[in-house]
Each structure stands twice: as C-alpha cells, then as structure tokens.
Amino acid sequence: MARLDAPNPPVADASPPGTSRLPASDRNFGPLISIGVVASLLVAWWVVTTGTETVTQLYLPSPESLWTAITTLNTQLLADAGATLGRVVASWIGGSALGVVVGLAMARARWLMYALNPIIEAVRPVPPVALIPFVILWFGIGDTGKLFLGALACFMVMVVNTTIAAGNVPPVYLRAARSLGADDGNVYRSVVLPAIVPEILSGFRIGSALAFAVVVAAEFLGADAGIGRLIMQASRTLNTSVVLLGTVCIALMAVILDQVISRISAYVTRWAAQH
User: Which of 11, 31, 136, 197 gets the most CB atoms within 10 Å of its CB?
Assistant: First the structure.
C-alpha cells in the first residue's frame, strides 16, 4: 500500500462518479440506449419462454410465472427484501466507515502501516463466505454474523481504497501547504481529505455491491428472513420462479442503492467537475 508522501503520479481525471466527457448530444441518447437494451432483453425473454416455449419453465421461468410468484408471496417477499436490505445497509455503513478511518490512519502513520498491512494483505484475498462456518460457530445464525461478514468485506475494500487514494495525492500539494505554514494536521484536513473524497465515494459503490453478495450468501446457510433464505428454500423444491424472483429483487435493490450513492457522490464532488 502507498503512503501519504509516496511520489505517485496524480490521477488524470478527477471527475465525480456519473459524469462523462461525451458531447451533450451523445449523453442525451444514453438513457434511450439503456432503455432500448433492457426492453429488447425483456422481449427476448418473453419470446423464448412464453411465445415460442423454446426454453422450458424449469430452466427459465416466464414473465407470467414470475408475476404469479410475486402475487403468491406478496407481503413475505417485502419482509424478506426488507430484512436483506437492512443487513446490507448496516454492514456497508459500519464496514466502510471503519475502513476509511483505518486507511487514513495507516496512510498517515508509517508504524501503523507496517503493523496492519501484513494482516490486511493476508486476510483480503480470503472470500468472506469462506468464513461462514466459523461465523456460525461464533455468532450463531442470527443477524450478528451476517453483519460481521458484510462489514468485513466493505472494510477490506475501503481500507485499501483509502490508503491508495491518500498515496496518490500529488506531493507538490503537500509541499505547497507546508511552505505556507500548515502543520501536518492542517495539511491532512485541508489538502488530503478533499483530494481523496472522489475516490473514497467510488469505493462506497464497490463496497455496496460486495455487501449484497456476502450478506445473501450468508443467508443461504441460515436465516429467519431474507432473500437468500427465500432463494435457498425455493431451490430445494426446484421452484425456479421464486429463485428468479429473488435474484431480480437483489438486482433491483443493488441498483437502487448504487444510484443513491452515485447521486450523493455527484452532489458532494460537484466541485471536481470544474477542474
């Protein structure tokens, strides 16, 4: 991992998430292209399942069977989706916040970097789902273990993202601030933190997607509510309509959360688009 004063080259494009350098005329067609692609996929789905019955319902449920699953589950689907989303958001916030704090501390203190970096680099490649058996032994099948796994995944993303972002701050900015009489604390608050905000916010988007994957995987092995539990129960009876419905719910929730983070990030870093 890079230290704060490492002579790494600056990032060329500091545009906030969601911005584009394409001409305005091209950006106006962007949403239309996206809508067209989604509509084409939906039509193709209906054609191969209901229209021509090329694919059997067991292998790919039709839109009609998906709607039947929605009306059958009704409030249970909402309860399971709410349970999963709550776990994801809680673990994402906790793990990301801790990762940013630890990353900033590691970037600032060389001794802390040497102390924590070997542990983080050893644990980071391990998939959090591989720890599920231990987590069940430690915390049981309640929410605590799922929150721990989701937070661990987000922590690993953000601690690495933060230390690298801090190391990418151009050294000339740091020397300029110190030449004007700023101490280390002022340099960190007035130069480093504003410079790394766009990269940290981008890391939040990665962490949110990873939190969904880890939390749902943990729900597969034991939960009293959640989309993962719903999918696992349906798969045991080959109820592929419910399996597909659960997958669609996860995708929709992940997209919505990602869009919320993107909008907030674009607003917070709107100043970067002017540079």
Answer: 197
Residue 3 lies in a domain: no
pLDDT digits (tens, 9 = 90+) for 150-176: 899 899 889 988 888 877 777 776 677
Distance CA 100, CA 204 (A): 10
Q: Which amino acid is at 161?
A: N
What pLDDT score does 92 carry? 92
DSSP string computed for 189-253: IIIIHHHHHHHHHHHHHHHHHHHHHHHHHHHHTS-SSSHHHHHHHHHHTT-HHHHHHHHHHHHHH
Any domain includes 8: no
Segment 73-77 long-range contacts (CB within 8 Å, at least 24 positions apart): 73/230, 73/242, 73/245, 76/230, 77/230, 77/245, 77/249
Query: Left if phi > 0, otherwise alpha if psi is -120 to 50, otherwise beta: which for 23?
Result: beta
> Residue 100 belongs to a domain with what CATH number?
1.10.3720.10
Q: Count Cβ atoms below 10 Å from residue 77 Cβ, excluding itself.
A: 19
Report field, pTM of the whole predicted structure over 0.90: no
Is 189 within the bounds of a domain? Answer: yes
Q: How far is CA 207 from CA 2, 4, 213, in A?
A: 20, 23, 10
pLDDT by residue (tens digit) across 92-133?
Answer: 999 999 999 998 888 877 888 888 888 888 888 888 888 888
Total tally of structural domains belonging to the chain: 1
Model confidence pLDDT, tens digit, residues 214-239: 888 888 877 788 888 888 888 888 88
